[in-house]
Amino acid sequence: MSIDNNQANTRLISEAIRDVLESGSAAVLVTLLDSPASELSRLRIGAKLLVKESSETLGSLGESQLDNAVAQQAYSFLKTRDDARALRVEEFAPELEKFRAAVILFERIEAEPHLVIAGAGHVGAALARLAALVGYRVTLVDDRPEFIGRDLFAYQSEQSIDLVLAENWADSMREAIVGGRGVSVAIVTRGHKQDEDCLRAVISSSPFYVGMIGSKRRTNIVLDKLREEGTNEEQLKKVRAPIGLDIGAVSPEEVALAILAEIVAERRGGSGAPLSDWRRK
Question: Which of 27, 82, 194, 264 is the most buried (most CB within 10 A)?
Fold first, then answer.
């Protein structure tokens, strides 16, 4: 591939990546990191291939056989929770003898994780601040204007928090969640009615994660109400209620930490168990 063609290919991939992020979909950017020159004379270090979850591909590593094998591995990579992984071709396509020593980098391309919080009380506000601090895009929804004033979130790390005044809980939650992909939802409102309105709207939007604060009794009241209305049982089973990991949380900040810990564990595939458990076995 000539330098001009390579630059044009890079521009097209950059534009495609922007489209993937704006559409809320996902893709894998594949880059050739290393290859023995004697074996891979047609390949250029740094060559890229973009593999979209829709099966569309853009770019090339220089050999159609390698592109096809890499694309199949990219689909498998999308099913993992890894952000990036470097593999030798022999690890996923040993039949390609000519390319077995090549090193390929797989990188996940998708929008930043998005947390939608229903309720800007003590726990909701603390959760919004903590999630923004660790890199989540945060939308905080409440129907009380005095709880979502920008002056309440004045620190630099809090400026990215999107504050939404809900005239109608259900409509505001649906608008915040949009398609649901990569979106986590924490329902931490002040009462049953608000919980019901939010959960009803949230479930229909199919987010990645949904949890609801409250005691077992309070959360069961809400879940039973939706069950009586005919909500799919499998959808209800996905609701984390009560929300969060059991860390003995007491203060609003500790409860927020327990909630975010569960969200991160779900996103990353963590068990939530102590990392030191292996020492006790």
Answer: 27
* Domain hosting residue 200, numbered range: 114-268
pTM check: above 0.85: no
Residue 273 counted as domain residue: no
- 57 & 119 share domain: no
Bridge partners (DSSP) listed for residue 59: 49
In this prediction, residue 27 has a pLDDT band, given cuts at 50, 70 and 90, of very high
Q: What torsion do the CA atoms of 11, 15, 16, 19 make, to the nearest 10 degrees? A: 170
- Domain end residue (candidates: 78, 110, 142): 110
Kindly state whether residues 98 and 213 are assigned to the same domain: no
Q: Which pLDDT score, from 0 to 100, does residue 38 have?
A: 45
Among 108, 114, 136, 115, smallest CA distance to 26 is for: 108
Number of domains in the chain: 2
The type of residue at 220 is N
Measured in degrees and rounded to the nearest 5, phi and psi for residue 147 equal -95, -10
Phi first, then psi, for residue 279 (nearest 5°) are -70, -20
| Whether residue 130 sits in one domain with residue 222 | yes
Same domain flag for 235 and 143: yes
19 and 78: one domain?
A: yes
Query: What pLDDT is attached to residue 41?
Result: 58
pLDDT at residue 2 is higher than 60: no
